[in-house]
């Protein structure tokens, strides 16, 4: 493919591209990825850079704002390509990652995305790599965890009408059915609905024990408030990662329990997470809000691969990253490994319980 072996001479600097939403509602998540990547770049440079040949080469971070939008994402991808990045940590949103994949492939640039839609790695291009578990595993986690809750017999499954939310909910409902659980209500809303009076009435009439929801945090907040007034205080909610925010803390006591599943396993859950968090807090005066540790590990992994290859050649970098024998450096997660299909070989989904205003880890598994 054009561009895969484009580097005939070693560069004076190795550019790491980061394409993320840096403006708009998801800017905090995108900036978190930038922060993690920048922290890794600075650490590596402080130690002399990446060994290539007989010398060492410094890393440079190149940022691009994809605005969480496919068209803006294409412009961001083109800016990274034009800048001559060796690898791109891009993007957050699956729609953006999918829309830009062939652009990166055409330039021979390995694309490391934190997106979760399975379609991302199924586009028949060699350069798509995923940093976390995909939606198939998260859907199994949603259904499996909900199914094993004590005394749970009657389930409602509700999604927000987006491709992400509906796909996740459909597969979670299939998992519930496979485990012989009764789905008494299956509803598709839209991603802006906050009036759940009709839904709450149906859930009460169906005597729902557990709600499996792929709604947004503000929607679940409204649903909990309306449900409590209708006598659904014993309801348990199992949601996707879109509800794992601070927004639900003030309403958590109005239902029996709120759980969230997420392929973004928090840094504090890894043995090496404490040291990362200490350094991150010193640098940024606060905790990560999303996937900073995945971006941090990705930069370290890429640097290790380049060093072992003794070249910054993109084709050789991609080959190394996908090699089953590459046990590369991933300081926090310890297990960032790509299969030949670009998926994580040891991906996991975690479950959290919202208690006393904090999302507390309950379970983490790669087998659901």
Describe the structure.
- The protein is α/β, with parallel strands linked by helices and about 375 residues long.
- It contains 10 helices and 13 strands.
- Strands 8-7-9-10-11-12-13 form a 7-stranded mixed β-sheet, sandwiched between helices. A 6-stranded mixed β-sheet has the order 2-3-1-4-5-6, sandwiched between helices.
- The protein has 2 domains: about 15-130 and about 270-335, Response regulator (Rossmann fold, 3-Layer(aba) Sandwich), CATH 3.40.50; about 135-260 and about 350-365, Rossmann fold.
- The model is unreliable at about 1-10 (pLDDT under 50).
- It has helices spanning about 25-45, 70-85, 95-105, 135-145, 165-180, 195-205, 215-230, 275-285, 290-310, 315-320, and strands at about 15-20, 50, 55-65, 85-90, 110-115, 130, 155-160, 180-190, 210-215, 235-240, 255-260, 350-355, 360-365.
- About 50% of the residues are buried.
- It is elongated, with a radius of gyration of 21 Å.
The CATH architecture of the largest domain can be given as 3-Layer(aba) Sandwich
Instruction: Assign a percent range to the helix content.
Output: 25-40%
Low-pLDDT segments: 1-8
Largest sheet geometry: 7 strands, mixed
| SS strand fraction | 15-25%
Tally of contiguous helical segments? 10
Shape call = elongated
**Pattern of helices and strands:** EHEEHEHEEHEHEHEHEEHHHEE
Q: Alpha-carbon distance between the termini?
A: 37 Å
Which radius of gyration do the C-alpha atoms yield? 21 Å
Strand order, largest beta sheet: 8-7-9-10-11-12-13
Number of strands: 13
The CATH topology label of the largest domain is Rossmann fold
Q: Which structural class fits the helix and strand makeup?
A: alpha/beta
In terms of quaternary structure, the protein is single chain
Tally of distinct domains:
2
CATH homologous superfamily descriptor of the largest domain: Response regulator
How much is the average pLDDT?
95
CATH class of the largest domain: Alpha Beta
């Amino acid at each position: 493919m054009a561009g895969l072996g484009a580097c005939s001479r070693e560069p004076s600097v190795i550019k790491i591209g980061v394409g993320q939403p840096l403006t708009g509602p998801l800017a905090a998540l995108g900036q978190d990825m930038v922060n993690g990547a920048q922290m890794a770049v600075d650490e590596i440079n402080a130690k002399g850079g990446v060994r290539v040949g007989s010398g060492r080469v410094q890393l440079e971070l190149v940022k691009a704002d994809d605005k969480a939008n496919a068209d803006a994402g294409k412009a961001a991808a083109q800016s990274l390509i034009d800048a001559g990045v060796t690898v791109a940590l891009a993007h957050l949103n699956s729609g953006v990652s999918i829309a830009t994949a062939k652009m990166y492939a055409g330039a021979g640039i390995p694309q490391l995305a934190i997106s979760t839609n399975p379609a991302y790695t199924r586009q028949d291009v060699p350069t798509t790599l995923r940093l976390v578990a995909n939606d198939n595993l998260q859907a199994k986690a949603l259904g499996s965890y909900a199914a094993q809750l004590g005394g749970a017999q009657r389930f409602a499954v509700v999604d927000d009408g987006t491709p992400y939310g509906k796909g996740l909910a459909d597969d979670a409902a299939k998992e519930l059915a496979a485990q012989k659980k009764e789905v008494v209500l299956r509803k598709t809303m839209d991603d802006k609905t906050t009036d759940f009076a009709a839904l709450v009435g149906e859930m009460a009439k169906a005597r729902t024990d557990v709600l499996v929801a792929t709604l947004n945090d503000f929607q679940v907040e409204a649903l909990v408030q309306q449900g409590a007034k209708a006598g659904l205080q014993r309801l348990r909610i199992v949601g996707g990662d879109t509800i794992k925010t601070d927004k639900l803390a003030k309403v958590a006591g109005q239902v029996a329990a709120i759980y969230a599943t997420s392929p973004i396993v928090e840094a504090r859950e890894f043995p090496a997470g404490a040291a990362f968090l200490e350094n991150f807090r010193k640098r940024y005066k606060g905790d990560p809000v999303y996937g900073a540790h995945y971006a941090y590990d990705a930069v370290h992994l890429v640097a290790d691969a380049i060093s072992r290859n003794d070249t910054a050649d993109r084709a050789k970098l991609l080959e190394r990253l996908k090699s089953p024998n590459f046990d590369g450096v991933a300081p926090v997660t310890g297990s960032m490994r790509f299969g030949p299909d670009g998926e994580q070989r040891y991906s996991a989904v975690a479950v959290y319980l919202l208690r006393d205003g904090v999302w507390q880890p309950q379970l983490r598994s790669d087998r659901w």
